[in-house]
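Researcher: Structure prediction, please.
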Amino acid sequence: MRSNMAKKNNQQSPFDNFPDKFFVQDDNSIFHEKTFIGTELGGEGHRLRNYVVISTKDDTSLSADQKQIINDRFVTICQKYDSQIETIEFFDTYALIKLLVSMDIAIGDVIDEGIITCNKKEDFLRFHYYVTNVKRPTKKDIQEYLQLEEVRQG
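Model: Predicted structure follows.
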């Protein structure tokens, strides 16, 4: 993420015409000015776009019921945190979720609570995840992440 303060005078800020991947935070008590926040994936309104990978414990295949649980629980958690799911793609042992998360919310809160809620009935998801706001992770990126020792133990 990148943030910049606008100039204090009345001149047009060089950030006024940034593309959608930049957001203006007008009510910022820290800087008392406009703050510009950028993310490569952009966002919508006051929400920043992120990709999240969540995976099963012991690399077990996701069942149809587990996929439905992930979808339902993350939709509910996103509503609670003024966030949205754009897409969920299910693969054999993991899900790739594209989220729009409110700038006022820590993305970890959304993901942590989503995983905890999914695991209430059946403990099937790792409490270790991959998140990025830079680009959609490739299959190679995801496979390299899933092969990390700390992921495999978690």
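Model: The longest strand covers residues 47-56.
Researcher: Thanks, that helps.
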